[in-house]
Design brief:
With 145 residues, this protein is of the alpha+beta class. It is built from two helices and nine strands. It has a four-stranded mixed sheet, with helices on both faces. Strands 3-2-9 form a three-stranded antiparallel sheet, with no helix packed on it. Strands 5-8 form a two-stranded antiparallel sheet.
Length: 145
């Protein structure tokens, strides 16, 4: 699979973590693919765009926050086949510092959730293992180095 032939979909996502160790998730609007499911904010990586820049752009567009790009910590990634024959590859970053207050800009709901409670939220298939990884690796509100 290569990006050039359109069979790979590159998406970047971010788990914003607040001072209480809670993770921000967003509910996809009903009219979109996977509508009603909860996900980590993010979106498609544009041609020539770095994943960190995509996360920064998407958080700005979706939530009106400006993450500290150098504070984006690579955390895990999802690799998932899609029904249309493409394959999704999605790095997940963790971010603890950003400017602004999350304010949904695209009609989505948001929730601050304890990592142990992420399993209580229905998520798209690629987000499920990432949520489990967050739950398992966040210890006392810290991401192990």
């Amino acid at each position: 699979m290569t990006i050039e032939n359109g069979k790979m979909l590159l998406v970047a996502a971010c788990a914003l973590l607040d001072e209480d160790g809670r993770v921000l998730i967003a509910r996809r609007p009903d009219h979109k693919t996977d509508g009603g499911l909860w996900e980590f904010p993010g979106g498609k990586i544009e041609p020539g765009e770095r994943p960190e820049a995509a996360v920064t752009r998407e958080l700005r567009e979706e939530l009106g926050v400006e993450p500290c790009e150098r504070c984006l910590q690579p955390f895990a990634f999802a690799s998932h086949p899609m029904p249309d024959g493409r394959h999704l590859l999605m790095p997940l970053y963790v971010c603890r510092k950003w400017d602004g207050f999350p304010d949904p800009k695209e009609g989505q709901q948001i929730a601050w959730v304890r990592p142990k409670d992420l399993a209580n939220y229905a998520m798209p298939a690629p987000d499920v293992p990432l949520a489990a990884e967050l739950r398992d690796r966040l210890q006392g509100g810290r991401v192990p180095v």
